[in-house]
Specification:
Number of strands: 13
GO molecular function, one term: nucleotide binding
Helix content: 25-40%
Structural class: alpha/beta
Family: Belongs to the SIMIBI class G3E GTPase family. ZNG1 subfamily.
Catalytic activity: GTP + H2O = GDP + phosphate + H(+)
Organism: Brevibacillus aydinogluensis
Strand order of the largest sheet: 3-2-4-1-5-6-7
Bound molecules: guanosine-5'-triphosphate
Radius of gyration: 21 Å
Domain CobW C-terminal: 255-341
Order of helices and strands: EHEHEHEHEHHEHEHHEHEHEEEEH
Largest sheet: 7 strands, parallel
Length: 341
């Protein structure tokens, strides 16, 4: 039987913005709905503070403590998700990230070759603390890394909760909204107090790029499936509304991913060169491959300045490559890869 993929909702947002408050409301709502739900919570410290707050809803909770799933314990996120899939076969997984997690890096973990086909990212929901947002993204008051992370939490969101509006004046609220719109003109903004919003709407979150990916997949039946984790550009939206194809992913202002399933072993040297020569807009590539003349499966990892290839003991994973980047020229990448056979 083919396992169905689990829908993943990622709750992100800076420390104390209202993520757990939202999660509690979501779980209360989901109690009355069908479907198996599992929560994955991550906390930087080794103390489980937030987890205590969501006991009692009757859903399994997996906790990843003492590190951030976007960086120091990213491997544990992959293992944790594999465990969840094997133990619970959930319909939905709700991930609450730490307040300092960069959603781009969490999505990177979700695209691990062993998980890629079994998870469907439904959406990134970002909670913004209206009362602190402007000072947090001020370079004078925050480190540049923090500013980048907080901006990414907004930039890559599919839905924004502008929370704690009870703590700001109308004037400040307008300024925060203007900044959110500037960073992310695509995600709907819901102004909330105590993260209170229509949860059906939240669960029906739409990823604009998903619609275009579905159309691409239909147009190119039989070619590798492309999933985009970003949004359609304004130009593409206009084109789509006029009935034109949105065209190449390079028109998107977004991070996108696609997978490629190897059809046989490749030449080791050529493949290593291929990885080193990947264009700059491929931020990440990873997967498992077989080399001609060698028995064992090879795990490969590519980042902008690193290529790692190492034998992988467990022969379980499929021979697949996953690519993550922006404006990817999928055909060219695949053609270069296929020259390695
Ligand atoms: N005044 C006010 N307080 C709020 C609002 N939403 C949440 N809070 C409070 O803000 C505090 C932090 O909320 P949490 O939901 O724990 O925030 P969080 O994002 O999960 O925090 P971390 O897990 O530490 O990142 C709690 O005391 C909430 O009750 C709001 O809209 N207005």
């Amino acid at each position: 039987m083919v396992a169905l993929s689990a829908g993943v909702y990622m709750l992100t947002g800076y420390l104390g913005s209202g993520k757990t408050t939202l999660l509690q409301k979501l779980l209360a709502y989901l109690q009355s709905q069908d479907g198996r739900v599992v929560v994955l919570m991550n906390e930087m410290g080794d103390e489980d503070i937030d987890g205590e707050q969501i006991q009692g809803f009757g859903f399994p909770v997996k906790k990843l403590l003492d590190g951030c799933i976007c960086c120091s314990i990213r491997g544990e996120l992959t293992e944790g998700l594999k465990d969840i899939l094997a133990s619970f076969e959930p319909d939905h997984i709700l991930i609450e990230t730490t307040g300092v997690a960069d959603p781009v890096d969490v999505v990177d973990a979700l695209t691990h070759p062993e998980l890629y086909d079994r998870l469907e990212l439904k959406g990134i929901i970002s909670v913004v603390d209206a009362s602190r947002f402007r000072s947090l993204i001020s370079r004078f008051q925050s480190s540049s890394t923090l500013v980048k992370t907080i901006r990414n939490q907004v930039k890559y969101a599919d839905l924004l909760l502008l929370n704690k509006i009870d703590l700001v004046t109308p004037d400040v609220l307008e300024k925060v909204k203007a900044k959110l719109l500037e960073l992310n003109p695509h995600a709907p903004i819901h102004q909330t107090i105590q993260s209170d919003m229509d949860l059906r709407e939240l669960l029906n979150i739409k990823r604009a790029a998903e619609r275009s990916a579905a159309i691409q997949a239909r147009d190119k039946a039989g070619t590798p499936v492309q999933k985009s984790i970003g949004r359609m550009s304004t130009l593409d939206k206009v084109k789509r509304s006029l009935g034109f194809s949105a065209g190449q992913p390079s028109l998107y202002n977004s991070i996108e991913t696609f997978s490629y399933h190897f059809t046989g072993p490749v030449d080791a040297d050529k493949f290593e060169d291929f990885l080193w020569d990947l264009p700059k807009n491929v931020y990440r590539a990873k997967g498992y491959v077989l080399f001609k003349g060698r028995e064992e499966l090879i795990s490969f990892q590519h980042t902008e300045n690193q290529v790692h290839l190492f034998p992988f003991e467990n022969f379980g994973p499929k021979m697949v490559a996953v690519f993550i980047g922006e404006g990817l020229d999928r055909e060219k990448i695949i053609a270069d890869l296929e020259a390695c056979y």
